Automatic annotation (TrEMBL):
PANTHER family: SULFIDE:QUINONE OXIDOREDUCTASE, SULFIDE:QUINONE OXIDOREDUCTASE, MITOCHONDRIAL. Its cofactor is FAD. Keywords: FAD, Flavoprotein, Oxidoreductase, Quinone, Transit peptide. The lineage of its organism: Bacteria, Pseudomonadati, Rhodothermota, Rhodothermia, Rhodothermales. It holds the Pfam family Pyr_redox_2. Residues 4-119 form the FAD/NAD(P)-binding domain. The keyword Coiled coil does not apply. It comes from the Bacteria. It comes from Longibacter salinarum. This is Pyridine nucleotide-disulfide oxidoreductase.
């Protein structure tokens, strides 16, 4: 079959949420999901896996179990988008046509932008770690456990936006806690090298994070970008983005967060804005030039923090507008306000649940001050949200 009424590119968080919600409304919909991977990952758990709380297998499920009944799974990758002809090209060379297209292909981790990282990350025992990959998130915990008394631990964040804006620092707070538990924190150094100028984007939660950084005696270096790694010498090179000066730091452990960009097949297509992202309307999530195309999640240019929680509020808007178009009626006024959420783990058993909109104003779900660190919110992240994700959100139920 080479044509579908609705074609979804990407069977990750956004693609599966939209497809399953559409099928709840129209169970005989002619829909296909293009997704190359036979596994699906609950990426938010990688922070706690890096912190030694869960084994990595907890975050992995078979993709096949989450393709909604009645939808077709095309296990392939899109290589080219041809929105003027309403079709896409697959890696295998085939062409697939559509009436409506939903873009949900996620983000590209640009490891190659920092020389020395890729090789080092995949070698054992060298202290170079990252929670941003399924295959490496357990190595973070190995490095935390092996961290020596009096050592230096560095945590980095790039100039680009990243998925889950809080993840680069959450693992730092867990590492600090673990070092204290292991009796190696005294005389040791923890440094956060962040290329942006603020600790966190929403001021209400940033205030709490500044207190956490102070309490934990963490050295905070803003406007500081990792530009090279020399793993054989345990050295990292940083650039001060204000002065342009470069300096080299020794490390015993370094948690690297790579720059993140739009996937190449999107940035090279007519669907891209000038930075490469799928160019959608921030309220309706409909493409700004192709009205039969929608985009959500990490691959979109929505000016909000890229998270799964944001997609939970984006998916119903796409579904509303798409169903309206399919049924030739007006949408039920669904508009996305930029809602995103970041569960900021500040230690084992402690969490600040940041929730805010396009203007960085809080949009909190609970009747208490969520900028305070709480055990209840940690329990929600560790035990509640994963269950909600697998059994509810991906099944189109919430
Ligand atoms: P993904 O879920 O990444 O899915 C994209 C899919 O597209 C993938 O399955 C991929 O295989 C597929 N794909 C790629 N290329 C192609 C192609 N060419 N053709 C077809 N398919 C393709 N979010 C939160 O809400 N809370 C958190 O606490 C949180 N913590 C995080 C911690 C870490 C360490 C990380 C890495 C992420 C975290 N996130 C968190 C972010 C969240 O996981 C992402 O924002 C979310 O998964 C994005 O969904 P998506 O559908 O846009 O992309």
């Amino acid at each position: 079959k080479d044509h579908y009424r609705v074609l979804v590119v990407g069977g990750g968080t956004g693609g599966l949420m939209v497809a399953s919600q559409l099928m709840q409304h129209e169970d005989d919909l002619d829909i296909a999901i293009i997704e190359p991977s036979d596994k699906h990952y609950y990426q938010p758990l990688w922070t706690l896996i890096g912190g030694g709380v869960f084994p990595k297998e907890e975050s992995e499920r078979d993709e096949a179990d989450f393709i909604p009944d009645g939808a077709e799974w095309i296990q392939d990758a899109v290589t080219e988008l041809h929105p003027d002809e309403n079709r896409v090209t697959l890696k295998g060379g085939e062409s697939v046509g559509y009436d409506f297209l939903v873009m949900a292909a996620g983000i590209k981790l640009d490891w190659d932008a920092i020389p020395g990282v890729t090789e080092a990350l995949h070698q054992p025992g060298n202290g170079v770690v990252s929670n941003y990959l399924y295959d490496t998130c357990e190595k973070t915990w190995e490095a935390i456990e092996a961290f020596p008394q009096g050592g230096t631990a560095i945590f980095t964040e790039p100039t680009t936006g990243v998925k889950c804006g809080g993840a680069p620092q959450k693992i730092m707070y867990l590492a600090d806690d673990a070092f204290r538990r292991n009796g190696v924190r005294d005389g040791s150094r923890i440094a956060f090298m962040k290329a942006k100028g603020k600790l966190f984007s929403s001021p209400k939660y940033e205030r709490t994070l500044y207190d956490v950084v102070k309490r934990k005696d963490i050295e905070l270096n803003l406007m500081t970008e990792l530009i090279e790694l020399r793993a054989d010498q345990n050295e990292a090179v940083f650039k001060n983005l204000e002065t342009g000066e470069e300096h080299t730091e020794h490390y015993d452990m370094i948690h690297v967060v790579p720059p993140m960009i739009a996937p190449d097949f999107i940035s090279q297509s007519p669907l891209a804005d000038n930075e490469g992202w799928v160019d959608v309307d921030p309220g309706t999530l409909r493409h700004n030039r192709y009205e039969n195309v929608f985009g959500l999640g990490d691959n979109s240019n929505l000016p909000t923090s890229k998270t799964g929680a944001a997609i939970r509020k984006q998916a119903p808007v796409v579904v509303d507008h798409l169903l309206a178009a399919l049924q030739n009626r007006k949408p039920l006024n669904g508009r996305y306000t930029g809602y995103t959420s970041c569960p900021l783990v500040t230690g084992y058993g402690k969490l600040v649940l940041a929730e805010f909109d396009y203007d960085k104003n809080p949009m909190e779900s609970f009747p208490f001050d969520q900028s305070q660190e709480r055990y209840s919110m940690y329990a929600l992240k560790a035990y509640g949200l994963p269950r909600m994700y697998w059994n509810g959100m991906l099944r189109g139920r919430m």
